[in-house]
Specification:
With 292 residues, this protein is mainly alpha-helical. It is built from 15 helices and no strands. It has two domains: 155 residues, UbiA prenyltransferase (Tetracycline Repressor, domain 2); 136 residues. The relative contact order is 0.11.
Amino acid sequence: MFTQILKLIRVPQWIKNFFVFVPLVFSLNLFKGGYFLTALTGFFAFCLTSSMVYIVNDIIDAEADRAHPNKKNRPIASGKISPGQGIITAVVFGIISAVLCLNTSPTFVLLLVLFFLINILYSLKLKHVVLLDIFSIAAGFLIRVMSGAVIIHVAVSSWLVLTTMFISLFLAVMKRHSELAILPESTTAETRKVLAFYSLNFADQLATVAAAGVIICYALYTVADRTILVFKTENLIYTTPFVVFGIFRYMFLVYMNKKGENTTRILVSDLQMIATVILYAAVTLLIIYGPF
């Protein structure tokens, strides 16, 4: 039962909530204990809230998931956990999340509630509307970043916000590409209705635009006057190759190795992606907090 609960709340997907720490890192407050603990509280609040969303989504999509080659093994779709047990788990998580938010700002709470509502609306309606489905996913990432700034009371660069938007759009579009590529055409409407409005060619064009947006916005962030003034260095530009390689590697895995339906699995299983993320983080921290 415990194993099924872990599958239900999708702990590996919590990696997406690390976006909450982005403002902490780039505001030069990472190694300040008070700031870190506050951001950590926000991180866990988002983890619990996102798990609530996954549970609700799995209950709503149980019938469609049974027609999917992989999703049919999800706890609720497979019948290993009942919808009632799922609802109880979601309520418990909601209570714990509310307790974590007691000492945070009202604005953070509002953003967390907005995150929950947008995702529920996504599960009920928006995931069936072409383009709005991927923009809803992008909104979730943007709210994570904005919440990370609000909870520690710092400003966040507009270029970082734009970079977050484009990278989340990129990941969402690549997910759609993967779903179109692996599912038989006859079953796409059963597993995800919106796929009927996408094509591989359309998804590829969207992915190209989003990938270019990520690279351009991040590169401009590294050379922006405000960035150089805050970090007192122009060396952040040397982290750009890691971002470019990461985008290209992800596209390679999706297009050539037929992966991409599960973003988290790629990030934690592909050695080159893991190495790229680690090196990017190490070089970025060294430039921002080190003597360079």
